[in-house]
TrEMBL record:
Transmembrane segments: none
CDD domains from the UniProt entry: MDR_like_2
Entry-linked SUPFAM superfamilies: GroES-like (SSF50129), NAD(P)-binding Rossmann-fold domains (SSF51735)
One Pfam family linked to the record: ADH_N
Domain Enoyl reductase (ER) residues, every copy: 10-331
InterPro entries: ADH-like_N, ER, GroES-like_sf, NAD(P)-bd_dom_sf, YIM1/Zinc_Alcohol_DH_Fams
Ranges in coiled-coil conformation: none
Protein name per UniProt: Zinc-binding dehydrogenase
GO terms for MF: oxidoreductase activity
Length: 341
């Protein structure tokens, strides 16, 4: 089958389309004929080798972390899905493989496609949608009437986060450039700070929580924007000890490393009386089913920046890496004949 393969860590020239064998599912897995796959910054971070400390891949490896497609085979212990089901999923972190004509998905990581979406729109949901849901519902525990700051609202995660925070009953402030302002307002943002003109901390204060998608200076400003006792959750800052133990299930070595790496940030947060949390999202079929329900109920709109044919995935990756996508970038797979497999 055709797949987008990473040969060695580094620049885009170390990736290419090539032929690899169709993977074989184990007893608890599904084999999916991929119809569309979503792109995420984690794809180029993995390519560069930035995540080697938490996840090492045996190279060459097929890239890609989320997909939508049809079930074409089920392991013997799979009970919730059948051949022909239309599903979407964030694939297992330790395997990847979504940028291919066929991919393996754990039964527990998949959910039925939202009835109102095609494969391309559904493939845009899993990684960014789950990240936003898990950060706002499980980490920030957003409640009705709270004021929540979300940095970078116009991107893949931000476009879901604004809508989910509004659904949970919050007032939302976000940052966007003039290019993204109309979109974030359409998604429900109550306050939009133009990050090209002013610092969010100069106009926002006493927020009940913050969800940071940018790291760096914006993350540090979030500590000043929220009230003492509040939590700042980031997915783009520096991992802290709980990231290692709770999100990655790792032991003392990685916890200690993250303790040192995040020391200054945690000290900064403590000075403001704020809790600091770096979240690594986790795949979840149950959470995806919840997102599908919200999409079909009209609560969440999926924002797709652009759709590329799979053979142009290098262009799609370059667009993603430019950092200016509005919503998600997706690739769609070509039709296949049995001789191509
Ligand atoms: N830890 C985890 O589990 C996890 C999960 C998902 C994502 N992430 C991370 O979260 C980050 C965001 O991911 P994403 O998919 O949302 O990225 P993305 O879609 O590539 O974000 C692009 C958007 O960010 C906006 N942007 C860029 N600089 C900005 C700034 N200084 N202030 C406000 N907006 C800015 C851009 O708007 P303009 O073009 O208008 O500037 C663009 O719309 C990435 O670092 C990703 O790796 C982590």
């Amino acid at each position: 089958m055709q797949a987008f393969v990473l040969k060695a860590y580094g620049g885009p020239e170390l990736t290419s389309l090539g032929q690899v064998p169709v993977p074989v599912p184990n007893a608890r897995q599904l084999l999916i004929r991929v119809r569309a796959a979503g792109l995420n910054p984690v794809d180029f971070k993995i390519r560069k080798g930035d995540l080697r400390i938490v996840q090492r891949y045996q190279l060459p490896a097929v890239l890609g972390n989320e997909l939508a497609g049809e079930v074409v085979a089920c392991g013997g212990q799979v009970h919730r899905f059948h051949i022909g089901d239309r599903v979407f999923a964030r694939v297992a972190k330790e395997r990847m493989g979504a940028f291919a004509q066929f991919a393996i998905v754990e039964e527990d990581h998949a959910a039925q496609l939202p009835a109102s979406l095609d494969f391309a729109a559904a493939a845009a949901i899993p990684l960014a949608g789950l990240t936003a849901l898990q950060a706002l519902r499980d980490e920030l525990r957003v409640e009705k009437g709270q004021c929540i700051f979300i940095s970078g609202g116009a991107g893949g995660v931000g476009s879901f986060a604004i809508q989910i925070a509004k659904h949970l009953g919050a007032q939302v402030a976000t940052t966007a450039s003039p290019r993204g302002e109309a979109l974030v307002r359409q998604l429900g943002a109550d306050i939009v700070v133009d990050y090209t003109k002013e610092k969010p901390m100069s106009v926002l204060s006493e927020f009940d929580g913050a969800f940071d998608l940018l790291g760096g200076d914006t993350l540090e400003q979030a500590f000043a924007i929220v009230r003492p006792g509040a939590t700042v959750v980031t997915v783009a800052g520096i991992p802290e000890p709980l990231t290692a133990s709770k999100d990655l299930g790792r032991g003392f070595g990685l916890q200690a490393l993250f303790w040192f790496a995040s020391f200054l940030l945690r000290r900064h947060a403590r000075k403001h009386g704020v809790h600091y949390r770096y979240l690594f999202m986790h795949p979840s079929g149950a959470d995806l089913a919840e997102l599908a329900r919200l999409v079909d109920a009209g609560v969440i709109k999926v924002i797709v920046d652009s759709v590329y044919p799979f053979e142009n995935i290098i262009d799609a990756m370059a667009k993603l890496e430019s950092g200016h996508a509005k919503g998600k970038i997706v690739v769609t797979m070509p039709e296949i004949s049995s001789t191509q497999k």
